[in-house]
Amino acid sequence: MSERPDNALHSRYASREMAAIFSSQHRYTTWRRLWILLAECQKELGLPITGRQLDVLAQAAPGLDLTRVAEIEAETRHDVVAHLRHFKEQADAIDDECGAGGKLHLGATSAFITDN
C-alpha cells in the first residue's frame, strides 16, 4: 500500500492536485466517507442506526492507518474487508458499547465502495 505511481502517466504527467486525488490516501478516505454516507441514508430509511453511532464513525474516519490495513489485508487477502475491519476497530476503540462498527457496510457489496 505505497503511494508510488501505478503507471508512467501518473509519474510523468499528473499535476500535484491530480496525483493527490488519485492517491491511495484519498481513495481510502473516500471509502470511509461512503460508508458513513451509506449509514446516514440507512438511518433515514429507518434502519436501526443511532446518531451516536454516526458520531463515532465520523470521529473514527480520519484515523486511517495504512500499515494496520496492510496487516489485516495480509490475513484476509481482500482490500475492502481489510479497510472495513480497520475502520470497525477504530470505531470500537472510541465507543465499543454503541456498536457503531457493526453498522458499517450493511447490505453493501465491495463494488459499492470501489466503484463509487
Topology:
Elements: H1 8-13, H2 16-21, H3 24-44, H4 51-60, H5 66-76, H6 79-94, H7 110-115
Helix pairs in contact: 4-6, 5-6
State the name of the first-level CATH class.
Answer: Mainly Alpha
Amount of beta strand: under 5%
Which architecture per CATH?
Orthogonal Bundle
Mean pLDDT, as a whole number?
Answer: 92
Helix content: 55-70%
By secondary-structure content and strand pairing, the structural class works out as mainly alpha
Query: Superfamily at the CATH H level?
Result: Fumarase/aspartase (N-terminal domain)
Q: Tell how many strands the DSSP assignment holds.
A: 0
Instruction: Tell me about the largest β-sheet.
Output: none
**Count of alpha/pi helices:** 7
CATH level-3 fold name: Fumarase C, Chain B, domain 1
Rg over CA atoms = 15 Å
Total discrete domains: 1
Taking pLDDT < 50 over at least 5 consecutive residues as the criterion, the unreliable ranges are none
How do the helices and strands follow one another from N- to C-terminus?
HHHHHHH
